[in-house]
Amino acid sequence: QVHLVESGGGLVQAGGSLRLSCAPSESIFSFNVMGWYRQAPGKQRELVATITPTTTNYGDSVKGRFTISRDNAKNTVYLQMNSLKPEDTAVYYCNAQKVWQSFWGQGTQVTVSS
């Protein structure tokens, strides 16, 4: 069973920054895609950003503010979140996909105060 260990959430004021980390329990190269999704209270889970060895993809609401990256040596995926807004408040989940399987982390809370 794959485990995804997330860290870096917290409380920040609007306009501030946070960096989330996701470390899988096996090699990052064993996954086709890794990424971040978020879910706010009463809303559906939505895409934040995904990354492959060659591409990145972002949800429309975070383009230009968030950056997803991966450090192969540290076996970790990061989400740098800048210019945070109150509407970014949500539980953020790391996701890792193989061909026929999808794995989720336990989630980390991000709260942006106005």
Note the gap between the termini: 39 Å
Pairing-aware structural class of the strands and helices? mainly beta
Shape: globular
In percent, how helical is the residue content? under 10%
Task: Describe what this molecule looks like in 3D.
The model has no long low-confidence stretch (mean pLDDT about 95). With about 110 residues, the protein is mainly beta. It is built from no helices and 11 strands. It starts with a strand and ends with a strand. Strands 2, 4, 5, 6, 9, 10 and 11 form a 7-stranded mixed β-sheet that branches. A 4-stranded antiparallel β-sheet has the order 1-3-8-7, with no helix packed on it.
What's the topology here?
Elements: E1 4-7, E2 10-13, E3 18-24, E4 33-39, E5 46-51, E6 56-58, E7 66-71, E8 76-81, E9 90-97, E10 102-104, E11 108-113
Parallel strand pairs: 2-11
Antiparallel strand pairs: 1-3, 3-8, 4-5, 4-9, 5-6, 7-8, 9-10, 9-11
Give short descriptive properties of this protein:
114 residues, mainly beta, seven-stranded mixed β-sheet, four-stranded antiparallel β-sheet, 0% helix, globular
In short:
The protein is mostly beta strands.
